[in-house]
Each structure stands twice: as structure tokens, then as C-alpha cells.
Amino acid sequence: MATSDALPSPTAPRSRPSRRSSTATGVGLLLGTGLANQSGAATASLAFPVLGPVGVVALRQCTAGLVLLVAGRPGLRALTGAQWRTVLGSAAVFGGMNLSLYAAVERIGLGLAVTLEFLGPLAVALASSRRRLDAGCAVAAAAAVLVLTRPQPSSDHLGIGLALLAACCWAGHILFSRELGRRVPGTQGSIAAAAVSALVCLPVAVLVLALQRPSISVLACALAAGVLSSAVPLLADLLALRRVPAGLFGVFMSVNPVYAAVIGTLFLGERLDGPGWAAIAVIVTANAATAVATHRREAAGPADPVGRRAANHAPR
């Protein structure tokens, strides 16, 4: 972390107002990140009828990789073989996460798909805990999923399965990102993974554009998703994490399903009933409570700031 961004000494005359202002700025960035992320996903869904989820994801990955390469300028030539193996693993789950999520959004809607996807980071946090609070959060989240999906013969089981696959990929992405944080300095590993994903998706993007010949508006929707849902969140998170504690970061990340449900309702014509909104609230609360508990547990034990930051920085 750059020394120029360090907070003033506690003994400085204006330290308290400065600290409060910095935290408020960080919270604003986190709220803006969530809004940009889900707005990008909603915008991407408008291109599904023409490009399909595969085409949209390919264009999104290419756009995000290009923007992050230009903004971050990682030293790719300096990476070792061991570092590249971790980068490739992260790129694989990164691409799989976005493809399965967008395929789920097309079938079951943005709000439900994003809420189920957030079971991934919740599972990672709960896997290393044996506390009663975390066990209670796991039970509450499982019950909320049953209420939210309400399995029955008419349910879109494939769409639900794709959203759960996205959750598994996100969990894997978090674990790979932690390893990247240990092996590669700063955010170079995450940006390298985004670049690899873009390179793999490039032939698919070219083929889709050649076959479908989308209009400018459809193309703009797909490209906007790469900026709003990947590039903006990564860069904004970098700034936010310098201003807010890791636990607070986790709490505000947990609000994403609410953003997704509201945006889906207002702009995509999606409908959730009372039990559905209650189930989303339970999952959001479980994520937030687990984030706070995990932060307190890590603060009391050996710190791994690089790994945690890398996991939080991982572009989505």
C-alpha cells in the first residue's frame, strides 16, 4: 500500500475528521461498486437475445481484460512458471463463473441468480469455522435457498444449477486469488488472470460478431458489462480497501443481491414475492454476519493481509 495513501497519525490534530471522511469515501465506493456490478449484469442481459450468454461473456471478458491491462500494466514477463499455473487456474474459474452466472440470469433472472451465486463466498467463510454463529448462518442460508427456489416440477432446475455452479466457481476463484496474493505482488495476478481469460475468449468473440453482426446498441450493452462488472469494481475496490476495514468491506459486498433484485424488478420486469424478498434478506444478513465474524477472528489470529486483499480484489 502506497505510503502517500496512509492515514494520518492518531496524534495529528485533524486525524479524526480525516479518518471519518476517508471511511465515508470508502463506503461510497463500495456502494457504487455494487451498483456498477449489478447494472453491468442487467445491461449484459439485454444483449442475450442476439448474442446469447456465451457471446456476451466473451465480449465482456475481452473488454475487461483490455481495460485492466491498460490501467494496471502488470509485468507479465516477470511471472514464474509456478505463478502462471496459479494465474491459469484463476482465469479458468473466472471465466466459468461469469459464463455460468450469465446463463443462469437468462433462465431464472438477475435477482435469484446473483443471490444463489453469493452462496460461494459464504461457503468459503463457513468452511474454516466451527462457531455456533457461523453454523446458524449456514442453516439460515440453506433454509432461505429452499424458500427462494421452492423446488417443484415447474422449476427451472437447470437455471438454479447454473447459479449454484457460479457459486462454486466464485468459491474457487476466491481460493485461487488468495494464492495469487501470496505468489504475485499487488493485483498483478488478478489482472493477469483477466488478461488470460480475455485471450481465450477472443476467438469466440470474433466468431460471434462475424455470425450475428449485432447492432451498435447490442454491442454497447455487451461491452458495457466488461467495464461496469469487472474493470470498475476492481479499481474501485482497490481504493475502497485503503479506507475501510476488511470486515466492513465484506458487509457492503453482501448488499449485491439486493441491488440485483431491485434492478431486476425495476428494469428487467422480474418479480419476487414477499417470501422471496425475505429469503434474499436472510442470505444477505448471513453473508454480512459471517464477514464480520471472519474479520474479527482473523484480526485476533495471524494476519494474511496480502492474501485477503487479493481475494477481495479478484475481478468478477
Describe what you observe in this structure:
With 316 residues, the chain is mostly helical. Helices cover 80% and strands 0% of the residues. It has 13 helices and no strands. The longest helix is centred in the first third of the chain and has 31 residues. It starts with 14 loop residues before the first helix and ends with a helix.
Task: Report the C-alpha radius of gyration, rounded.
Answer: 19 Å
How many helix segments? Answer: 13
> Quick one: biggest sheet?
none
Mean pLDDT, all residues:
84
Q: How far do the termini sit from each other?
A: 22 Å
Low-confidence segments, given as residue ranges, are 1-17, 303-314
Instruction: State the share of residues found in helices, binned by percent.
Output: over 70%
Please tag this protein with its features.
disordered C terminus; EamA_dom; Diverse_Substrate_Transporter; disordered N terminus; transmembrane
Layout of strands and helices, then pairs:
Blueprint lengths: L14 H31 L2 H25 L8 H28 L1 H8 L1 H9 L4 H18 L7 H27 L4 H25 L3 H25 L5 H8 L2 H12 L6 H27 L4 H9 L3
Helix pairs in contact: 1-9, 1-10, 1-11, 2-3, 2-8, 2-9, 3-4, 3-7, 3-8, 4-7, 4-11, 5-6, 5-7, 5-12, 6-12, 7-13, 10-12, 11-12
Brief account:
The protein is mainly α. The protein contains 13 helices and no strands. Helices cover about 80% and strands about 0% of the residues.
